[in-house]
Amino acid sequence: MISGYHKRPRTSVPTEVARALRKRMTPQEAKLWVALRRLRPAGFTFRRQVPIGPYVVDFACLKARLVVEVDGAQHGFDTHLARDGVRDARLAERGFLVARFWNHQVDRELASVMDTIWARLTEPRAFPSL
Asked: In this predicted model, what pLDDT tens digit does every residue of 48-73 receive, in sequence order?
């Protein structure tokens, strides 16, 4: 891995915006946050409501360049699907892999969600040069 590659990414989002989002996480985000913190002993530290470029992502492990998004029903509409596609592509340009989960998956299938996140964290990937 490139030295310093997991430092805070550049952003155009004011710090206050991310702070406000951290204070009002959805119940599913709060539930997943508790589970993600259990990955720290394995060396994977997540941050919540992380500004990256013009976006604020739900969770990010900067070391592994993994973004985890928890989506509600509104993300199933065409306008949101298109917006999410553009957002995911822009994050990929910055070297991030995006894993998206529905609220109901976090509520009902948390173990499966965590297994998928673990697989994304540990799968070999080529990181783009900076």
From this structure: 999 898 899 999 999 999 999 998 75
Distance of alpha carbon 44 from alpha carbon 38, whole angstroms: 9
Tokens of 128: 């783009």
Note the CATH architecture for domain 24-122.
3-Layer(aba) Sandwich (3.40)
Backbone angles phi, psi at 53, to 5 degrees: 60, -130
pLDDT value for 1: 39
Q: Are strands 66-71 and 97-102 parallel, antiparallel or unpaired?
A: parallel
Q: Angle at the Cα of 120 (from 118 to 125), degrees rounded to 5?
A: 135
List of residues 6+ apart from 42 with CB closer than 8 A? none
CA distances from 110 to 13, 77, 107 (A): 30, 24, 6
